[in-house]
Specification:
The complex is a heterodimer of chains A (113) and B (114). Chain A has strands at residues 4-6, 10-13, 19-25, 31-38, 42-49, 56-57, 64-70, 73-78, 87-94, 103-104, 108-112. Chain A has 113 residues and is an all-beta fold. In chain A, strands 2, 4, 5, 6, 9, 10 and 11 form a 7-stranded mixed β-sheet that branches. A 4-stranded antiparallel β-sheet of chain A has the order 1-3-8-7, with no helix packed on it. Chain A is globular and about 40 Å long. Chain B has 114 residues and is mainly beta. Chain B has strands spanning 4-7, 10-14, 19-25, 32-38, 45-51, 56-59, 62-67, 72-77, 86-92, 103-104, 108-113. Classes of the chains: A mainly beta (113), B mainly beta (114). Chains A and B meet through strand 4 and strand 5 of A and strand 4, strand 5 and strand 10 of B.
């Protein structure tokens, strides 16, 4: 019963490439989030969105952008990938007025070479 | 903005012992405090949460306590089992409807030795 799906589990890209990470949820959640997870640093928020076509910067937005054209899909874009963006990327969604909890995707392990 | 500190970063216990993980937060307006468990290679999953109008919450072998005055909250796991081995994350938010962002601690790697 996977409810938050990230399109790729593992991804290898070259420095300077434009990279798209896709996240789709089927729970009709209004809110979607992108975090990156690095050892010893926990989960850090990159961008989030409360509604279609809305976006808010998180704590580490530099080098990233996002797109939310449909309620169920939230895309993270690395405009020009760099080696310091090698990381695990986690997408999550939540319901406004709901239990407050996030549902996470399985993550995308991105390696930039 | 909110800052969440989590200790210890690693914790090793014997099966059957108790484990305690502590977190402090900086924003007194935070009112929602969830805990997530992430097993190796898997997604984080919510295991328990507490809101600021409650001091303690239990669910079988796990419990969370909240001290609003001191701005800290803790996760307690009793009778630990090997399957409790995972990374645990605390988080805080000022959620009024589930839309506020969560700020996470850096995680605690718990190892339960058989």
């Amino acid at each position: 019963d996977v409810k938050v799906t990230q399109s790729s589990r593992y991804l290898v890209k070259r420095t300077g490439e434009k990279v798209f990470l896709e996240c789709v949820q089927d729970m009709d959640h209004e809110n979607m989030f992108w975090y990156r997870q690095d050892p010893g640093l926990g989960l850090r928020l990159i961008y989030f969105s409360y509604d279609v076509k809305m976006k808010e910067k998180g704590d580490i937005p530099e080098g990233y952008s996002v797109s939310r054209e449909k309620k169920e899909r939230f895309s993270l874009i690395l405009e020009s990938a760099s080696t310091n963006q090698t990381s695990m990327y986690l997408c999550a969604s939540s319901l406004t007025g709901g239990s407050y909890g996030y549902t996470f995707g399985s993550g995308t392990r991105l390696t930039v070479v | 903005g909110e800052n969440v500190e989590q200790h210890p970063s690693t914790l090793s216990v014997q099966e059957g012992d108790s484990a305690v993980i502590k977190c402090t937060y900086s924003d007194s307006a935070s009112n929602y405090f969830p805990w997530y468990k992430q097993e190796l290679g898997k997604r984080p999953q919510l295991i328990i949460d507490i809101r600021s109008n409650v001091g303690e919450k239990k669910d079988q072998r796990i419990a969370v306590t909240l001290n609003k005055t001191a701005k800290h909250f803790s996760l307690h796991i009793t009778e630990t089992q090997p399957e409790d081995s995972a990374v645990y994350f605390c988080a805080a938010s000022k959620g009024q409807g589930g839309s506020e962002k969560l700020v996470f601690g850096k995680g605690t790697k718990l190892t339960v030795n058989p």
